[in-house]
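We give the chain.
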Amino acid sequence: MKTETVGTAEFQTWTVEEVAEAWAKNQVVLIDVRTPQEYMFEHIEGALLLPLPFFNAHKLPGQKDKQIIFHCGSGVRSEKVARAAIDAGLEKIAHMEGGFAAWKQAQKPYIGTNMATGAPSRVND
């Protein structure tokens, strides 16, 4: 994990492996900031959807029990959202390096769309 101090806050960049391990142990909340269409086509099972255009850092829940980690397609939007959360006063926030593309490249499990039927199906499960 890479960390950066921004004022009094800690901005973290987690690797796919770190996210996957913490996710499997239910230690983190994973928030997908991609579009609803991207999420419907494929997503990490259990990740919450909060598209970038609707993001309001002031409405995020506290992180007393679980660390929030944002992710998007490549890591660009999630970094933008994480930095906005810091600007809104969160003291510690994270995003996943490389985004969902890196998650898929690492062959981590996700929900995809069966192109023959249009139905959701587990991939790399």
